[in-house]
Specification:
globular; 64% helix; 10 helices; mainly alpha
């Protein structure tokens, strides 16, 4: 599972480096790598990607362990390309939708828009991948698993009332929609064809003559 290994290594390296920094340096790093309206305005689009290298809101090892479990399961079941594509698609799309909503509010000059909000973390891609895996599982696991995940995220939204909680619900919908695509539903790996049965002497494919004509007896090509 090379995709999971590379991403987990990047998360561990970032977490280890941040652990050795002062509180002011950690705050500065998070501030400069947050995907917010201000960075979109000034053209720092790379923060859309670097924001996914910081574990925020939960202990670092807990978040990294969740990534290893969910992304690793997706990569094992669906292959590296499809698993990583779903994770990145969830992270980028949910971030753009939530920050795009704030950006529109900022453009029309609504008061109280947090243009420099702290927005980093792994949760958007993680929720999208988990929802996609549950939806692809089908049956009772898909029904009850998605319902439980939606319930937990809704309760978190009602309790915290933060924009990130809205992004988590958006991520769940994105994962469920991704699972409906033929590209993800196709089995991973090449299909194995059944071996062909050998031709019988009485079939049309049996080309060796059963009797040698009398006038060619003893003749060799």
């Amino acid at each position: 599972m090379p995709g999971t290994a590379v991403y987990v290594t990047a998360l561990l390296s970032t977490a280890w480096w941040l652990k050795g920094q002062s509180a002011a340096e950690r705050a500065r790093f998070v501030r400069h790598n947050s995907s917010n309206v201000h960075h979109i305005d000034v053209g720092k689009w790379w923060t859309l990607f670097t924001s996914g290298l910081v574990v925020d809101g939960v202990p670092a090892l807990v978040g990294i362990g969740a990534v290893a479990a969910v992304l690793g399961c997706a990569e094992w079941r669906r292959g590296t390309l499809r698993a990583c594509t779903v994770f990145v698609y969830g992270h980028l799309t949910a971030t753009l939708m939530t920050e795009g909503f704030l950006w529109l509010m900022h453009v029309v000059r609504l008061p109280g828009v947090p243009t420099r909000a702290r927005d980093v973390g792994i949760s958007y891609g993680l929720v999208t991948t988990a929802a996609c895996l549950l939806a692809l599982a089908g049956g009772r696991l898909a029904r009850y698993g998605l319902a439980l995940l939606a319930s937990v995220l809704t309760v978190a939204l009602l309790y915290d009332q933060e924009l990130a909680d809205v992004g988590h619900l958006i991520s769940l919908v994105l994962g469920a929609l991704a699972a409906r695509t033929d590209w993800l539903r196709a089995p991973s790996g090449p299909a194995t064809a059944a071996p062909a049965a050998p031709a019988s002497p009485d079939s049309e494919e049996w080309t060796t003559p059963r009797h040698t004509p009398a006038h060619t007896a003893g003749r060799q090509e």
